[in-house]
Amino acid sequence: MSDPTPEQVDRIQQITGLGKSESREMLGWQPELCERILRAAEHQTGTLYDPLEDDPQHGPTIAAALERATAEAGSEGNPRIWKRARQILREEHGLVWYSPGEMNPGKTLA
């Protein structure tokens, strides 16, 4: 996805609400994230989440990491929980997981 097509740019723009140049830049700099956003948008509505969460092999691991991160972060808020879960998944399981904040770049999530 290093050279995004106009259709890809339009689709990312439509899904995220980002501008055309931001969408083009995102496709160039974060192709894996964009691929996940596009895959998620095929089957999800509203706030998107990483499609890996639906994978029978990885879904339980992601759920456990989120539960652990929530217990560790307490009432610190979603961004801190997501950051910790991402760290657990990367360091302990070799998984690249994108948080709802990353999956919805044009939206403000609490």
SSE topology:
Layout: H1 6-16, H2 20-29, H3 31-43, H4 59-73, H5 78-93, H6 100-103
Helix pairs in contact: 1-2, 2-3, 4-5
Summed up:
It contains 6 helices and no strands. It has helices at residues 6-16, 20-29, 31-43, 59-73, 78-93, 100-103.
Fold and architecture overview:
The protein is mainly α and 110 residues long. It has two domains: 1-48, no CATH class; 49-102, no CATH class. The protein is built from six helices and no strands. The longest helix has 16 residues, at 78-93.
The mean pLDDT is 91
Poorly predicted ranges (pLDDT <50, ≥5 residues)?
A: none
Number of helices, counting only DSSP H or I runs of 4 residues or more: 6
Strand coverage percent: under 5%
Distance between the termini: 30 Å
By oligomeric state, this entry counts as single chain
Number of strands: 0
Structural class: mainly alpha
H-E order: HHHHHH
Please give the domain count: 2
Rg over C-alpha atoms, rounded to the nearest angstrom: 14 Å
Shape type: globular
